[in-house]
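STRUCTURE REQUEST FORM
Protein name: glycylpeptide N-tetradecanoyltransferase
Source organism: viral metagenome
Requested output: structure tokens
Priority: standard
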Amino acid sequence: MIEYLSYVLFFIVLMVFVIYLYIKWKYGFWFLQPVYHAYNINYMFYPPGIINHHLPQKNKYTNFKNIETFLYSEISSIKLNKFVNLIKYNYLQNKDNIFSPQLENINPYFQSHNSKSFISFYNEDNVMMDSKNNIVTDTKIIGIMTTRPVHIIINNGNKDAKFDAYYVDYLCVDKKFRKKGIAPQIIQTHHYNQSYLNKNIVVSLFKRENNLTGIVPLCVYSTYGFSVNKWSKPIHLDAMYKLLEINEQNFHFLSDFINLNNNKFDIIINTEYTNIIQLIKTKNIFVYVIIVNDKIVCAYFYRKTCIHYDKNMEVLSCFASINDCQDNIFIRGFKISFWKTAADNYFGFAAIENISHNNIIINNLLLKNKPIIISPTAYFFYNFAYNTFKPQNVLIIN
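Status: completed
Returned output:
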């Protein structure tokens, strides 16, 4: 009997060891990171919030030889232009999409924050010959990553939480240098440098589309893409309803409405209001509200994506909405505000993220429209573990 039990114990230990090796092989870099792994059963019942309270340590992925981290506000115009050129040709590019931002579509996202924003460059020496056949060494940027601050509020009864995090954007490696382990080095080194440069923020937030990782997401949903060529001009709202575009002068009405409706969501993630105003002023995001009796009853948030689908149709993304009125009014308000934004700014394709109250809009559109694209999308935390939220209970404005 004892011999039999020893065999069983040996088999169990062997299986655990094999599973451990498989997970380590499958997830590689992410296996070592402070994230909520799908195999971490303990976090399922007792999510700890912040995982690692200490400053990060150097490891095999930190690369201080090739990677430099800067305050975004302090980088030179030369580096800024190199950054823009890199993402133009290497970020969000496939046979259907063309991503073509200008500097004025990027800079406003890093302006008017109360905390520092960062950018990291992966540099590699580029040896060339000049016109006199002399060897000249130039620095070539082959990878980048940016982070900018966001505020996070979790509404969960006795487990409410309020903290700041860094939103990760433009994680990009030159196409010619991919599959060489550069992206993990950028993430690890950026996180290390950022943690020492700003010790007040220890959590990061990633957004991932298409292929999702083995990390338990903050939320997971689909993004729907529709061609609007055949959409007909919507009927106007009744006289009692007023559609208003938000600008710098009337923004305080929107901020009051957001604050009043925070309790409709389990988690709210937003950038500094001064940053949102900057994005509105530069026409990188557009916000419309419906007003009844001097009271806002719903809001729609659109983003200029700088993505052209099928070459000539720029995508306008509805990335969030808040509804505090009847669904039929809310849906019609979306159609009118989308039509107006698209017509005034030459957008020809709609992307709607099935998050916040956008599910009401999407369910209505699907009755008569077939999406051209359905893309899985997820947000996940870095150095923070919390159970997944339903997307309709998540509001993200950044």
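Reviewer notes: The two ends are 63 Å apart (CA to CA). The chain has two domains: 48-206, 223-397.
Form closed.
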